[in-house]
Amino acid sequence: LTKEMEKKRTDIRQIVNKPDNIVPFLNPGRLLYMVDGVVDWGWGILVHAGRRKLEVDPRRKSAMTEEEEDEIQWIVDVFLPCEPGSLQENTPIPPTSSNKAEG
Fold this sequence. Notes:
The protein has a 3-stranded antiparallel sheet. It is an alpha+beta fold and 103 residues long. It has helices at residues 2-16, 19-22, 58-61, 66-70; strands at 31-36, 39-53, 72-79. The termini are far apart.
């Protein structure tokens, strides 16, 4: 029963997270909770959301199919807190302490 409930939750999350269902709520100023893989960025402020064709990184091009290369995707610009000093190194990381974040 627990596995079945977890599967239903996963199915509902996949439906809710589809771009067609999220787009009406992507308004500038909205707070978003951002997680990138295993990196938890926390809360950020949505600045802009729009559709555009992604520029393909030559290193990843071989791993992508032709359909993925031509696909137009949703891009969101979000202000996120970063660890002080990580922006100068051009590798922003989430803050380790909440009192001195920059960004």
